[in-house]
Specification:
Helix 1 packs across helix 2 and helix 1 runs parallel beside helix 3. The protein has one domain. The radius of gyration is 12 Å and the shape is elongated. It is mainly alpha-helical.
């Protein structure tokens, strides 16, 4: 059995939050793995009406 690390838990939480904000699961996963992507900025873009695909392009 492989134990989940703190990093794994944080990445999973970030992906969940990004999906909840409106990102597609695959995009949320990619963004969640990038520590240089600010979660609050990523969610804020969606909250301000930016389409998720465009928001991902901006962030990446």
């Amino acid at each position: 059995m492989v134990e989940e690390t703190e990093t794994d838990r944080v990445e999973r939480w970030r992906a969940d939050e990004l999906e909840r904000a409106g990102y597609a699961p695959d995009t949320a996963h990619i963004l969640s793995l990038r520590p240089d992507v600010d979660l609050h900025v990523a969610v804020g873009l969606i909250e301000r009406g930016c389409p998720p695909a465009l928001a991902a392009e901006i962030l990446l």
